[in-house]
Each structure stands twice: as C-alpha cells, then as structure tokens.
Amino acid sequence: MMNSPLLLTNFMQHAARYYPTKEIVSVYATGTFRYTYDDWYKRTSQLAGALRSLGIKKGDRVASFSLNNHRHMELYFGVPCMGAVLHTLNIRLSVENLVYIINHAEDRILFIDEDVYFLIEPFKDQLKTIEKYVIMSQSGVMPQTSLSPVVLYDDLIKDFPETYDFPIDRDENEPCLICYTSATTGDPKGVVYSHRGLVLHSFATGVALGVQETDCSLHIVPMFHANAWGAPFACTMRGLKQVLPGRQILDMATLCRIIAEEKITFSCGVPTIWIMLHSYLESGGAHDFSSIRYLFSGGSAMPRHLIESYEKQYGVMMAQGYGATETSPVVTLSVPKSSMETMSIDEKIDIRATAGMPIPGLDVRLVNTETGKDVLMDGKEMGEILVRGPWIASEYYKDPKQTAITFPDGWFHTGDIGTMSKEGYISLVDRTKDLIKSAGEWISSIDLENAIMGFSKVLEAAVISLPDDKWQERPLACVVPQPDVVKTITKEEIQDYLKDKVAKWWIPDEIVFMQELPKTSVGKFNKKKLRETVIPDILKKRGKA
Amino acid sequence: MMNSPLLLTNFMQHAARYYPTKEIVSVYATGTFRYTYDDWYKRTSQLAGALRSLGIKKGDRVASFSLNNHRHMELYFGVPCMGAVLHTLNIRLSVENLVYIINHAEDRILFIDEDVYFLIEPFKDQLKTIEKYVIMSQSGVMPQTSLSPVVLYDDLIKDFPETYDFPIDRDENEPCLICYTSATTGDPKGVVYSHRGLVLHSFATGVALGVQETDCSLHIVPMFHANAWGAPFACTMRGLKQVLPGRQILDMATLCRIIAEEKITFSCGVPTIWIMLHSYLESGGAHDFSSIRYLFSGGSAMPRHLIESYEKQYGVMMAQGYGATETSPVVTLSVPKSSMETMSIDEKIDIRATAGMPIPGLDVRLVNTETGKDVLMDGKEMGEILVRGPWIASEYYKDPKQTAITFPDGWFHTGDIGTMSKEGYISLVDRTKDLIKSAGEWISSIDLENAIMGFSKVLEAAVISLPDDKWQERPLACVVPQPDVVKTITKEEIQDYLKDKVAKWWIPDEIVFMQELPKTSVGKFNKKKLRETVIPDILKKRGKA
Q: What's the DSSP call for residue B356?
C-alpha cells in the first residue's frame, strides 16, 4: 500500500472540495456569522500564509485563548496543516497555570478572543516566548491594550492569497496540537497530539457515533478542552454543518434558539451545561428539540435522573463518553447495543448512565491494582482503567517524572477505578485518590454523590474523605441545596433519604451545606480545594485542629 | 501518541469481547448454520493454532478457494492475525491463471470449499508450493479425492485450544491478504494488502456508509473479490450481524428469503446479481425488503433504469461504489448529499447512477492524459482517474514491469476515463482502452451500452470498437435480447430507439445479437474475448479478412 501519511490536511481539503457550500455558523453576542467550507478554506489558507510570513516553522507552537467561533476553526486546521502546533489555552485557568504552560510550550504567537484580551494584560510581562498577539476580530479599530506587538486577526490575514500549498509530504506522527491537563496537584501536564492520532480518533468516533453527513453539530464543549473531544475534526472529515456558539453556551434561551433554528442533530457538552439547560427547561423555557437525535455528555458523570428526565420529559436521548486529555479524548460511549432494543426505557437509561463501552481501535483493561490482574467482566469487581491505542498519549511533554508515573508500562493508567459489565460497559467507581476507606471497606464518593443528588431538594453534592479516629476515614458530603429549600433543608432529611439507597455505613455523618461547589477549570468538582477549605473547619469544630 | 500498530486483530478481538452474542450466519444448500462472534473467535483461534502447528510463519501465504461462508470468515481473520497472508483465489479463474497465481504467490496451504475440490484435482500436479489441502467441511467422511495430503477443516482445527496469543507487537505495514486482478491481458497481477490499509479502509467505509451496529449485512460479493469490498472487516469492527449466503447467491428466491428472515439492512453486490434479482422481482417473485436501507452495487456500472426501478417499484435505494482490486477497493460512493434533499426522486437517481464521490482519506484527481493537467469539475471535461491514499496499492507483487506502468508517479492510474461534476460525483466514460474514436471524436462505449440497455427489449449490451476505413473506428454493439423477443428483435428497432438518446454518429451501424455475453471472472463484460470472437466474423463477412 502507498505510504500516504494520515494528515488533518486531507479532511480539510476533502470538506472544501466536496462540501464547498456547507455552512460553518458562528454565533456572537452581536449576531450570527455564517460562511461556507469554501470561504473557511480560503481564510484558513490566508492564515497559513500569514503564519509563514511571521516565520512560523514546522513544529513551532502557536497558542489560542478562545471560545468556539469561526476563527478558532481556522486555527484548528490552519496551524496544524501548515506544519505548526496549536496550543489551546483553557481560558479559565489560573494566571499561574497560564504563565507556566505558555512558557513551558514556548508559544510564539498568541491568538486571543476579542473580549478577553484584558485577561492576558496583567501577566504579559511574564510570557517569555510570545512574539506577537493577535486579537481575534474583524478589521477595524484596535482596542486600547497594553499587549504589544498586537494585530487584529482579519488584518493579519487579509493580504495573503486564498490558496496555500499545504505540505503533505510529512510524517503523520508530527505534532499538530498540544493541550495541558488541568492538574489539581502539581504543574499542568502537556499532551501532544499527532496528525495520525487525530485522524484515527476522527474515524473511530465517526464510526462509533454513526456521524452522518446529514447531521449538524453544535460544538458546546469549549475548543480548549482536549480538542473539543475531536468533534471539529470528525465533523469536517464528514462534511457536516457545524455551529459554534461562542460565549452563548451559558445563555440557555439562546442555546435553545440555536438548536431550533439551525436544526442541530447532536451536541457534546459537560454535565454543567446539561444541568443548566435542564433547569431552564424545568422552568418552562422555550425550546424545540425535534431535530436532535443524540446529546452526549462527558468530562464528569451525568446524574442518571437527568438523563432520564431528558428522555422522558423532553424526548431527547443522552449518552455519555469517557476519556481524558491523554486519550484525544474518546475511549468509550454509553450507547445501548442493538441487542438491548427490547429493554425497557429505564434499563436503557441505566446503560446510558454508565461511562460506556470502548470504541473500536483501542484496548481497554480494568486491572486490580494490587494483583495486577484483569478483573472479571461482572459489573462488580473493581479495577483501575488502563487504555492503549493509537490516539492515546505515551508521555507528558517535557515531563519525564510524571510520564513515568502515568505511562509506566505501555498503558495509560487513568487513575480511575471502575467496573465492567459482561456487556462491556464501564461504570466509574471513583478516582483512585478519591475512594474512601471506612473500616477497611471501600466507599465510592461518586456513587454516594449520585445517590445524594437523586434527592429532589439537592442541586449538587460532592463527597470527600474525612479523617476519622475510629473508622480511619468517613464520607463527608458537601451539598448545594435547590434554591427554594436553602433555608429549610436539614442534614437529617438527607440521611433519611439515603436509608434505602445505600448501605447504612455509607451514610455520611457530616453534611455541609454550601452556596456552590468549587469547580476545576473544566467544570469538575475541585475536591482538592474542598479538602483544603472544608475539612480544617470541621476538625477545628471537633476540637482536633 | 502511543506507537500502537493498526491491526485487524483489534477488530476481531473487539467484536469477540463486546459483541460475543452477535451472530454470524452461514447459509448452505443443506441448511443454515449460525454461531456467535464468541464461537467464531474460538474457532479462529483454533485455526491459528493449527496453522502454527503446520509450520506457517509470519508472511507465509495461505490460499482459499471458497465462496462466502463461516469458515472463510475464520480464514479472513485467523490467517492475517496469526501473522500469515491469506490469498483469496477467484474460483471462476481459468486453470492457467489459477496455476500461475498459486505458484506466483507461493501458497503453502490451500483451503477449498467442500463442493469444488474436484476443480483443483486436474491441475494439482502443477502446483509447486502447496504442502497441504484442506477441504472446508465439518468432521466426517473424507470424500474420494486425489488431492494429497488432505484433511477436513474441522478435523484440522479441532484439537487446538480455543485461545491463541495473536501477536500484536507487529508492523502495521505487514501484509495480511493478497488478491490478483482478473487481467484481461497478460498475467494476473497481485495486490498485497496491509493491516494498516485494511484497518483504515474499514474506518473510512464505515464512516462513509454510516454503518451502524444495528445494521445487518448480507455479503453477496464473493469473498475472493478484493476482500469482498472490505465489508467483512468493517462489519466486524462495528460488531454487526453478518450473513454469508455461500452458493445461494445465484438463487434469487433463497436470497429473498434470507433478506426477509435475517432482516438484512444492507448488501453489496455486482450488477449481475442485481439484474438477476430484478428479473426475479419483475416475474412476481416473493420478497420482503422492509428491513433494507441501502443496496450497493459495484464492479461495473449498474444501468440507471434498474436503480430507478428498484426505488420506484420496490422501495429500495441503491447506490454505487467505484474502485478496483488496487484500491482495497472503495474509492467513491454515489450517495446523494444532504444538500440534495430537495431534489426530485429522478434527480437523486441521477446521482446514484454516477460512480460516486470520493470517501474521506483519499486524494482523487481526474487528469487530461495529454496535458497532464487536472480537468475542470464541470461534469464535461474527461480525464483519467488517479487515486492516492493509505489503502491504495503502490505496486504489483513481484512485477516491476506492470508496476512501472500503473504506478508511475505515486498515483494509481486506474485506466478509467471519467468526468467529475461540480458536486464531486464521478461519471465513468470508459476504460482508456475501450473508448471508440470515430472521425476524431470520442464515443463512450459505456454510455452507449447504457443507452441500448435502456431499451425494453434488451437484456444486456456490450459495445466494442470496430476498425473502419472511413471513420477509423465505429461502435459495434453486441446485444442479448430479452427472452421473449429473441426471435423478433431487429437491428433497426434498436437504431430507431437510439435516435433521440445519443448523437446520430454514435448509433452503431453493426449490431450483433448473441445468446449471452462473455464475462470475466468478476462478472464484467469480457471485451477482449468479444473482440477476438466477433470482429473477425464481421470483417470476414465484409470480405476484408
């Protein structure tokens, strides 16, 4: 067979050549911008020309600090296909982390959304390698900014030709994107993606999701999250209409308007968004979901009762994916099998509430961390999830120490503990470090959280481990009540509710009510912060600190 | 990213692990055999053990002489995944060709369908490298045969363990299958497929066809045709139920019974089968096509009026694929785009009657053979179709001379002339060598054939070039009439019918009526044979020979 490299370039050019009139739609606060793959390819070519004129060479890092919009779609392909590496910066990271990763990646150019450039200004002097700032806006008046040198995106590209000789005589293993994990301990760790890895990830997710050219995707996951779960690549490969909601992802009325007007057929998002959307729906918010065939949730566990409500109240099927920045990111999907067609709706929702079954092309094992042996596929025996495959990272960028810990033996050790059913569906039990050991028995913080969140008076709940003299550890629940019961909810109510839901010894003795839970930059419960802030108080009250 | 090789092994093990109860169904004259992916994987493991015990090592060739059945499915994965190379022999090849390719490939073991072993006996002494014959049947009584040494398939494997340590620390470019093109001139040419190529072909066709796990495929294309168009691999990857009709593909009543009983959702086949099936339907044959969502035709052009009849009379959508043994084989698919939804049925059928649009992952060009430049995407300018990509052959096996002709510059030169519409759909005009040049103008033999086959009194028609003193070349039509008009049809009727269908100078002066047309071993019109047999007669009659 020909030694043709797997490059994202093929997807870009395939879309431009065979779907030139298909739309990419970008929604801004000021209005909706729409253009075609043909337009997009021309501007992406201009961008590549501009980068070359700035001296950007093969392997150089170019950073983006942006939400989901059409210019970010140009960067997603223009940077990798001209030979450089796109570093997507999470706009919610701390200043400390941003400075660290920009310097660590040695980014040369920084593209910034037009309404957030002021976030960069305070620490610009700490950025050692940035040579130019580009504000992602149309030509016009440069805002007052201390960033320098600085240029507007459309000014940067406007004088370059609408064709570019994208190199194809390349090694498919060349890096194309880089993304840092939002570490809760230590420095962020960089994952470098290759063209080969992302092409294969696109094929495998395209097959597993059954993505059709007739589909229309709303990219809710921010494009700085693990390449937005690969959707921009898979959708371009297949010539889909793509809708980029920008900052509107937090405005549920607008999101519902987009879904209805653009006839969205599927969308990927984190539970935070689906929970917000659900609240909006429950309050009677206007919507028309008739075009949707699937919603996908990932990043953290989606409460089962919400998956159920989406299906039963709003006629929308929701499935979950599981993965990590290190896995490009899709490892599993929780779509029921055809053999499950005769199941009841509730049984199917049970399946959708799992973390899902591996997609083709990967090897996934659940391993007893003490014996090193694979656990049974019985839905009971717990093991750490190990993943291997062509779109799984083999190392952290310039970080041999963390690499040795996480990739010790050719497998990615996820740090997640789960079970696998005989049908191959994984249920997450906990993070290895979040499991609670009470009197020698394991308590899953996630299972306990889900049980508590099943109580109608509870909005969110996070469970952490509290040191205990008698039982070694006991679960501590941090609970955000529903708005209407903030003043009336009691600890006893929750304990009472749990009585027939979990084992007696799982019921937390301590329950702390909070206004909100601290979250990481990707929307997961920040248990590290919870431990730091909540536990000392409790121990102090107990007179032990 | 991890350096994980792309191997068919992953698809096999994925199916066995996550779809253990899904069925593989094999239909024999004596009844239907059904087993599960779990059973299949166990027997495939036994087969691998047996091959190893016979001394089959990495890269060794193992041949199959078989139609589509469950043992062939075991060979399809067992041979490549244990490290060897499966050579699928076309059972319709001439003895001369069979002897040539078996010796050329240096096949060590020959697996033979139980009802065709007698076809091998006459030339067994010419096979220089075969060490063992295996008759693909269950344990029992060995038939009387001169093949030696010989063993029954189930006897061969029965004592080996149901697990096998399939090697995965391999180079993805290792060969896994080999197939020879059915050459109409010269010796057959071998194409060696790699694991990498077939894994990528499976992903790309899976995405392009929108193959779902809920689908059920009837493999009509014989498994000795270019890996049965990749369907056994793509279907296994996605865990589909697969149905293997064996010799029943020529019995339309049985085929329809299988479609109805097994709830087939899609099937791939050559026009010959779809024409036979259509005749069966037209004669009122029993059928239930309610489960079918698509039929795919390939290998040669499907007459438009039959695609139309399938859709309008029988409610079945049919699309075409284009490719070759050298292309694994899928290059294009003629499924209409979503932007064509508002088209009329007839316009959509026009699209389905083309050779289709390239699938993602390949580069396809149409090149003017005189200027070397790409032709316009205007549906008019003709060019030779050139293909490049990771599942396109780069050479013929041990044949540098033919390799230099067909792969001169990093592209596969298909020898097919076509046009490409602005939407990217290719229409085949002709083979470079079958085009007819009349008075300096090109006549497409294929277009003329299709025009003639549109006449209700015509069953099949092939057009070849007839030397002509005045016009250099003139088209000669070889026509098989419908059975009921064999004795009454006239040349003038056809010429009259063509008057408003093609340019006047395209209308053949000579029309020869025949009982049947010679076909190649893959069911295409054998124009070489037609030229050899028909033209001398005509020239003789004209008194010029």
A: B
- Return mean pLDDT, chain A: 94
Please report how the helices B37-53 and B8-18 are oriented relative to each other, as an axis angle in degrees rounded to 10.
140
Asked whether residue B184 carries a pLDDT value surpassing 70, the answer given is no
List Cβ<8 Å contacts ≥24 apart for B307-310.
Answer: B307/B349, B307/B352, B307/B353, B308/B346, B308/B349, B309/B278, B310/B274, B310/B278
pLDDT tens figures, A335-362: 999 999 999 999 999 999 999 999 999 9
Q: Which of B21, B341, B389 shows the shortest C-beta gap to A2? A: B389
| ipTM at complex level | 0.90
**Searching chain B, which residue's CA lies closest to the CA of residue A327?**
B1
Q: How many CB atoms lie within 10 A of CB B32?
A: 14
Q: Locate CATH 3.40.50.12780 in chain B.
A: 1-19+35-194
Structure tokens at A77: 């392909």
Q: Does B239 touch chain A (CB under 8 A)?
A: yes
Q: In A, which residues are within 8 Å of B239 by CB distance?
A: 337
**CA–centroid distance for B464 within its chain:** 23
| Homologous superfamily (CATH) for B434-541 | ANL, C-terminal domain (3.30.300.30)
- Angstrom CA distances, A119 to A99, A145, A182, A205, stand at 12, 11, 18, 35
Q: Spelled out in words, what is the top-level CATH class assigned to the domain B1-19+35-194?
A: alpha beta
Which backbone phi and psi does A462 adopt, to 5 degrees? Answer: -125, 140
Among A residues 204-223, those touching chain B with beta carbons less than 8 Å apart: 204, 206-207, 210-214
Encode pLDDT of B397-454 as tens digits: 999 999 999 999 999 999 999 999 999 999 998 888 888 888 777 888 888 998 999 9
Three-state DSSP class for residue B72: helix
Nearest to B339 among A3, A21, A204 (CB): A21
Buried b (16+ CB within 10 A) or exposed e, A323-347: bbbbbbbbbbbbbbbbeeeeeeeee
Q: Is the model's pLDDT at B545 over the cut of 70?
A: no
The gap between the terminal CA atoms of chain A, to the nearest Å, is: 69
Rounded CA separation A132/A9 (Å): 25
CATH 3.30.300.30 in chain A is located at 434-541
Instruction: Annotate B429-481 with DSSP letters as a single string.
Output: EEETTT-EEETTEEE-HHHHHHHHHTSTTEEEEEEEEEEETTTEEEEEEEEEE
Is there a contact between A54 and A79 (Cβ–Cβ < 8 Å)? no
Catalytic pick from A347, A442, A490, A540?
Answer: A442
| Tokens 């047309």, residue located | B517
Q: How far is Cα of residue A50 from the mean position of the Cα atoms in its chain? A: 30
- Residue the block writes with tokens 């209700």: B456
Q: What is the pTM of this model?
A: 0.90
